[in-house]
Specification:
about 280 residues; alpha+beta; eight-stranded mixed β-sheet; two-stranded antiparallel ribbon; elongated
């Protein structure tokens, strides 16, 4: 049975908006994480959400525009997430705001987000010529290379955990494997707009059927859920189906409105070994 996330109420998504270019922290709109977690029936998650803002600008004290790429690290333990359009509007409100230094900018953003999300948000500000993060492919065995035969035709496009099965006729007791796909798509729970992502899964446990995993991930194609909820539902379904020794799910969603969102969930750590920036980001 699919798990449907309730539509958040009173968000700015899909609505006509007046864009402010003067600093206004009240534009930030928190959404409770429990909306997605209550729908899944699971609140046991470790990890972090990595947000990148590629369109950020303010004025220095002489009125000269300054530009930067902002990287936000939001622990999965915060009570709230931030609604993405409200973050874009908040970022835009710096455009005609004079600030004395990069440190003042990052401190102000950290303070505003930490207060509204009820948890510590780390902010890194990179001047454009200082940002050397390179694009890369998702690590591991690519599920995209699998070929399905006629008997494996996909008919379900709304979260189907029944696709998750152990590898048949496998004599290996424990397998440590990394899987990846670039075929993931879900839908915004408010506007219905498509969200595309690359996903990598680190798994250790009894070997699983890769074709079943691929079909399961493809079954999100018409699922409505925020990025964080989708990743937590994948993590929950894998944990429930396989009871692995260790598990991690990392999704790199393509940017919208100059922002990309990258949720990471793990059974044993809070931060991934490296922050991935996938080729389409």
């Amino acid at each position: 049975m699919p798990v449907l996330m309730p539509e958040p109420q009173n968000t700015l998504l899909g609505k006509d908006t007046v864009y402010s270019d003067r600093y206004n922290p009240n534009l930030l709109q928190p959404i409770a994480r429990k909306l997605g977690r209550d729908a899944i029936g699971d609140h046991r998650f470790r990890g972090v959400d990595i947000w990148r803002l590629y369109e950020f600008s303010w004025l220095n004290m002489q009125g000269l525009p300054q530009t930067a790429i902002i990287e936000l690290t939001v622990p999965a333990t915060t009570k709230f997430i931030i609604e993405s359009k409200s973050l874009k509007l908040y970022a835009g409100s710096y455009a005609m705001t004079r600030l004395s230094s990069q440190e003042e900018v990052s401190n102000r953003i950290s303070r505003d987000l930490s207060e509204r999300l009820e948890g510590p948000v780390q902010v890194k500000l990179y001047r454009i010529n200082e940002y050397h993060d390179s694009l890369q492919s998702m690590p591991g065995f690519s599920l995209d290379d699998l070929v399905l035969d006629k008997s494996e035709d996909i008919q379900t496009y709304e979260t189907e955990p029944a696709y998750l099965i152990f590898a048949p006729n496998c004599k290996t007791l424990i397998s440590k494997k990394t899987f990846s796909t670039t075929l993931f798509r879900s839908l915004c729970p408010v506007t219905g707009q498509p969200d595309l992502a690359a996903i990598t899964i680190n798994y250790e446990g009894q070997p699983i059927d890769p074709k079943g995993l691929l079909k399961y991930l493809v079954s999100y194609r018409c699922h409505r859920g925020f990025h964080e909820q989708c990743v937590e539902q994948i993590f929950h379904d894998l944990r429930k189906a396989f009871n692995p020794l260790s598990l991690e799910v990392y999704a790199c969603f393509t940017r919208r409105g100059g922002i990309d969102i990258n949720p990471f969930r793990s059974s044993w750590r809070d931060i991934p070994e490296e922050f991935i920036r996938e080729k389409r980001q």
